[in-house]
Amino acid sequence: MRASLISPETAVTISMYQTSVPRFASMLRNLSAILDKAQAHAEARKIDPAVLTNLRLYPDMLPMKRQVQIACDSAKSVVARLADVEVPKHEDTEETFADLKARIAKTIDFIQTVKPAQVDGTEEKNIHLKLGSREVDYKGMQYLLGHALPNFYFHVATAYDILRHNGVEIGKRDFLGNP
Amino acid sequence: MRASLISPETAVTISMYQTSVPRFASMLRNLSAILDKAQAHAEARKIDPAVLTNLRLYPDMLPMKRQVQIACDSAKSVVARLADVEVPKHEDTEETFADLKARIAKTIDFIQTVKPAQVDGTEEKNIHLKLGSREVDYKGMQYLLGHALPNFYFHVATAYDILRHNGVEIGKRDFLGNP
Q1: How far apart, in whole angstroms, are the C-alpha atoms of residue B137 and residue B134?
Q2: pTM score, whole prediction
Q3: Chain A partners within 8 Å of B67 (Cβ)
Q4: Considering only CB atoms, which chain A residues are within 8 Å of B21?
Q5: What residues contact A74, with CB distance under 8 A and at least 6 apart?
Q6: Does residue B84 belong to the interface with chain A, where contact is any CB pair within 8 Å?
Q7: Exposed (0-12), middle (13-18) or buried (19+): which is A91, by Cβ within 10 Å?
Q8: Terminus-to-terminus CA distance in chain A, angstroms?
Q9: Which helix (H) or strand (E) holds A136?
Q10: What is the pLDDT of residues B74-103, one digit of tens each?
Q11: Secondary structure of B83-114 as H, E, C letters
């Protein structure tokens, strides 16, 4: 079995683009497939899908649907900010699995409009963020590696964990995809 | 508040090293601090710590202690394989929070013995893995970005989610650290 996540023609050198757009797109496709399994699980057991999308691991923790929304936002925000294009606004109105899959699809569509040349070389780019009451200054590489990627993976893994905890039959291979 | 995850002197260009060793070390330190909070939680409520380290989100999912062990193994393995040094063997004998923190500490110590020059430029290095019955061939960058990093974050986030689900008072800031 030969791995084929990144085509050999483009895989020569690690870059800001290689570390962001293709990685986010790949994980978001995996998340979308996980939602398919969750929907099939709900249908087979006649569970209202909105029960699953609103499940939480703890009362003051965000529900599954918000984990998906924030994962999408984390991906689109860092890609847009590095590329110096406007971050597209996506309202958080999703309730069903189909809604969440559409949110994921439009996130993938957006980040794939950004070309490597727009993201590569942004290691030292100044990124100023207002996070609620806090303001944070990052350099591009620090923002991508130290904030955006861990934040993205946190929410994808937590969406997975919520579904797994509630009996959806998924395994780590669904999370990692098939590299 | 100014971010300071990566010192400006070394942050100029993304590289295989920058994307691996400092990121793994930073997240493992965050995980160690999360275990401190879990231990304090157990002590305050007179819960046997082994109850918390053995908790699972589902009967056929690995317990919290295994999530920590596998996160450590994921970090040490990719760093060692990229650098062409032997992967250190760490037996999975941990039961207490102190044990798990020691496992994390020795993982950080090991990966920090590896120098940037040993890891940089390994994007195209051939990595052959036996994963149970499967054999997988990766290139270095693909192995790091497409397998090792998502796998690492998966286990750190799942350790966090297990503790969070069981009432330990932690938030995403504990996971992300203080960038």
Answers
A1: 10
A2: 0.93
A3: none
A4: none
A5: A148, A151, A152, A155
A6: no
A7: exposed
A8: 9
A9: strand A134-139
A10: 999 999 999 999 999 999 999 999 999 999
A11: HCCCCCCCCCCCCCHHHHHHHHHHHHHHHCCC
